UniProtKB/TrEMBL annotation:
<dbReference type="GO" id="GO:0016491">
    <property type="term" value="F:oxidoreductase activity"/>
</dbReference>
<protein>
    <recommendedName>
        <fullName>Fe2OG dioxygenase domain-containing protein</fullName>
    </recommendedName>
</protein>
<dbReference type="InterPro" id="IPR026992">
    <property type="entry name" value="DIOX_N"/>
</dbReference>
<feature type="domain" description="Fe2OG dioxygenase">
    <location>
        <begin position="180"/>
        <end position="292"/>
    </location>
</feature>
<dbReference type="InterPro" id="IPR027443">
    <property type="entry name" value="IPNS-like_sf"/>
</dbReference>
<keyword id="KW-0479">Metal-binding</keyword>
<dbReference type="GO" id="GO:0046872">
    <property type="term" value="F:metal ion binding"/>
</dbReference>
<dbReference type="Pfam" id="PF14226">
    <property type="entry name" value="DIOX_N"/>
</dbReference>
<dbReference type="Pfam" id="PF03171">
    <property type="entry name" value="2OG-FeII_Oxy"/>
</dbReference>
<dbReference type="InterPro" id="IPR044861">
    <property type="entry name" value="IPNS-like_FE2OG_OXY"/>
</dbReference>
<comment type="similarity">
    <text>Belongs to the iron/ascorbate-dependent oxidoreductase family.</text>
</comment>
<keyword id="KW-0560">Oxidoreductase</keyword>
<keyword id="KW-0408">Iron</keyword>
<dbReference type="InterPro" id="IPR005123">
    <property type="entry name" value="Oxoglu/Fe-dep_dioxygenase_dom"/>
</dbReference>
Length: 374
């Protein structure tokens, strides 16, 4: 097969029904669909999942209220305060591929106490407590978000064990990538993409890969602007395929770390968000990024697959074009360092303040606005 041959391309994102797992006779169908989605698409919708609809509804109600907090209350918890890159970012504070993203967001992570001690690798400073808005201003929000994060974290672990099954790996085949619960932290964001005018810059978030293992995006349709393009996914031929919100589902996708350790069996797929245009309300989303242990050296952990799985990968064909920046550091650096570099590139102001040495290595002349950020 020549490099330009695309054996199995996709024009839509498969929808997987999680409730198939409840019945022993339907379970194999779910596993087969998961195998196809992981190898050939890198994206899937998950319907009938176990995260409580009442908690998702409650979070959905909070989201517009969160962004409507007084600017001062939001700035009090700005990301620049946090060596963990957690907190509020104003519109235009984040970069992808060196270009400003048109989104406003709160980065919030699962509960964690920073473990870093003087003399240890600096990337252990990456994980630590979230910054929360004043409880009096938005009562109950923190509790709802923490409950949501607990559930989505559990679902993400469940999906990684199903992935092991779909790939014919030994049980616990991915266990060594994760630490114990209290030594792991997963990150989430609550994002608002404002409506832009025709002719304005519409990079909600530029083309990119996610860094970790698995991402789950809740995109509450109730909060979506009237018909407009939002999340788009790049297929093997380089075409952008729409991934519109589907009620009651999560969009799940593969990150670069999982692609790396599976030798490309699981596909990390380039994606972007186009800002809403000609709409009356912003677009909101809540991505959750499942991480792996910070100290894991991915190059030492590449997995072995049964030959039939490698055959499916080879039949897929190669990616013809991608507009996304690659994570080239995985083959030499621990996962924590790769993540820290990614965070500094996305938020140079936070990086310069808290990691001045590494910042200088990444942006030797200082940040000029033309960096090669993810
Ligand atoms: O907002 C979305 O739908 C996806 C955002 C995304 O891809 C990201 O934050 O990595
Ligand atoms: Fe993403």
């Amino acid at each position: 097969m020549s490099d330009s041959t695309v054996a199995s391309d996709f024009s839509s994102i498969p929808i997987l029904d999680y409730s198939l797992l409840d019945s022993p006779s339907h379970r194999p169908k779910f596993i087969a669909q998961l195998q196809h989605a992981l190898i050939n698409v890198g994206f899937l919708y998950l319907s009938n999942h176990p995260v409580s609809p009442a908690d998702i509804d409650s979070l959905t109600q909070y989201i517009p209220k969160l962004f409507a907090l007084p600017q001062e209350a939001k700035d009090n918890i700005r990301m620049a305060n946090s060596e963990h890159f957690l907190g509020y970012s104003r519109l235009g504070a984040e970069l992808t591929k060196g270009k400003v993203d048109q989104r406003e967001q709160f980065d919030i992570a699962t509960r964690h106490v920073c473990r870093w001690k003087e003399g240890e690798p600096e990337y252990y400073r990456l994980w630590g407590p979230s910054q929360w808005p004043d409880e009096d201003l938005i009562p109950g929000f923190r509790d709802t978000m923490e409950r949501y994060l607990d559930q989505i974290q559990n679902l993400s672990y469940k999906l990684s064990s199903l992935l092991v099954e779909a790939f014919g790996l030994p049980p616990n085949g991915l266990a060594h990538f994760y630490d114990t619960d209290e030594r792991m932290q997963h990150r989430s964001k609550i994002v608002r993409y404002p409506v832009v005018k025709e002719g304005d810059d519409d990079q909600g978030v530029g083309p990119h890969y996610d860094a970790g293992f698995l991402t789950f995006v809740a995109c509450p349709p109730l909060l979506q602007a009237s018909p407009h393009r939002g999340l788009q996914v790049q297929n093997l031929s380089g075409e952008w395929i729409d991934a519109p919100p589907i009620p009651g589902t999560f969009v799940v996708n593969i990150g670069k770390a999982l692609e790396f350790v599976t030798r490309g069996v699981a596909r990390a797929t380039s994606h972007r968000v186009i800002s809403p245009k000609g709409a009356t309300t912003p677009r909101y989303s809540v991505p959750f990024f499942q991480n792996i242990g910070l100290g894991v050296q991915l190059a030492n952990q590449v997995l072995d697959f049964p030959p039939e799985i490698l055959k499916l990968r080879n039949q897929r064909g190669k990616v013809a074009a991608t507009d996304s920046v690659n994570f080239s550091e995985f083959d030499k650096e621990p996962s924590g360092k790769v993540n820290l570099i990614g965070r500094i590139k996305s938020h140079p102001d936070v990086g310069e303040r808290h990691y001045p040495e590494l910042f200088k290595q990444i942006f030797p002349p200082g940040f000029t606005g033309k960096g090669s950020a993810y």
